[in-house]
Amino acid sequence: MKKFYLFCAAISFVATIAVAIISCKKEPNKDQEGTCVIGGIGVAGQFMFWVSKDYSGGPYTVKIYDEQGNDKSHSSLDNNQLTVFEATAPDACNKANANYSKHAVAQLLFGKKYSYTATSENRTFKGTIEVPCDDQYTCKAIQIDK
């Protein structure tokens, strides 16, 4: 009988710890517009657009749109021209990368969804980007031709 009580006590203890851990998991703070915030400031990540091969037709001009279709290119893009192709994803966080300035690079707010178009003389790529609050990356490469 004593073993039974010890077993029940152990189960109760484990259940209490599990509830405590689950209740400690905190949802990210968001402002009224759904943007993830830390200390009241919207948090942005860096996204580098890249293309895996040369389709010819010159550079790509990248445009970014929010969920309502508003053009956010002027406020989000550090560079809107994509002028180089690479066989593998570039390191989006490395500004020392020799080709860094040849990629379109955007600062996008966490907790938001965006769409983009990348247009050259003879080709257009379109896609969407969802940037969740819990995304562990502050920098990410987005392949436009997949």
TrEMBL record:
Task: Name the UniProt key words of this record, in alphabetical order.
Answer: Signal
Keyword hit for Signal: yes
- Stretch forming the signal peptide: 1-20
- The superkingdom of the source organism is Bacteria
Give the protein name, as stated in the record.
Answer: Lipoprotein
Cite the source lineage.
Answer: Bacteria, Pseudomonadati, Bacteroidota, Sphingobacteriia, Sphingobacteriales
